[in-house]
Write a structure and sequence with these properties.
120 residues; Trna Endonuclease, Chain: A, domain 1; alpha+beta; five-stranded mixed β-sheet; globular
Amino acid sequence: MNKGNADGSAVNKGAAAEQEAVEYLLRQGLQLVARNFRCRGGEIDLVMRDGATLVFVEVRARSRVDFGGAAESISTAKQGRIILAARHYLARHGVDAPCRFDAVLLQAGRLQWLRAAFEA
């Protein structure tokens, strides 16, 4: 799978999308807990806190919609990998709090925040 040009443009675009999502969510009153949590089998783009709730956020950016939009790119398999990573995060950090899975979609110059985009 092509991850972008040799200059890392896809990586840079992904980092820019995550930064835009963080700034938006901070303006909405959430607090940043962690970025890019990785474990064997999964990854979480952002871990945020919304009051007492821990929020695992998937950030998806799409410049085109010909092959499906940003929301459609969060497949059932992808959701499973995010849930797996969330379980690892909770166990590793000894967190016992209500949790939610959100998505921030950046598409065609528009940002959309889907609260409770899917459930574990």
